[in-house]
Amino acid sequence: MYAKDYRYIGMKIIAIFVSTLILSLYGSWRAYTPEPDRVSDVGYYSFGGIFAIQVVPLFFVFIILGLIVSPFVDTMIFNKFHSKGVKGLLTFIVAYLLLGVVSGIIVSIFFRRVESVLFFITISILGAMIFLFVQLAIQGIFYKRRATNDAN
Predict the structure, then answer these.
(1) DSSP symbol at 36
(2) Is the pLDDT of residue 54 over 80?
C-alpha cells in the first residue's frame, strides 16, 4: 500500500487528476439546470461552463492536499501505527476524514465564510475520501500488475 520511490508520487499525481475529474463532474452535474427546467430571462451556465469553473480550483486544492499534505499523513501513519489489512485501511480512512475536516475549516476561514463551515467541511471530506479511494485503487492496480510481472 505504500511505495517509497518515484512511483508513489506518480500514483498521487494520477489520483489528483482522477479525483479532480470525478469531483468536478459530480459538482457540475449537481449544479446544472436542464433545458426544460430553466426559467425564461434567467442566465444559466452550460454543463461545460460549470465544469470549467470548478475544475481549476479543485485541481489546486487536490495538489495542495494530495501532493503536499497527504504524503506527510501517509508517512506519519506508517511510522506511528504500523497497521496493515483492515486496521490499516480504517486508520487511513479516519486520518483522511480528519484531513477533510481540517481542510474544510481552513478553506472556510480563507474565504471568510465561517457561517458556511459545515458546507466546506462536507465538500472537503468528500474530496478527501474520493482521493483516498482513487489512490488505493491505483495502488491496487499497480501492485497487482507488478506482482503478475514479477511472477513471470
Answers:
(1) G
(2) yes
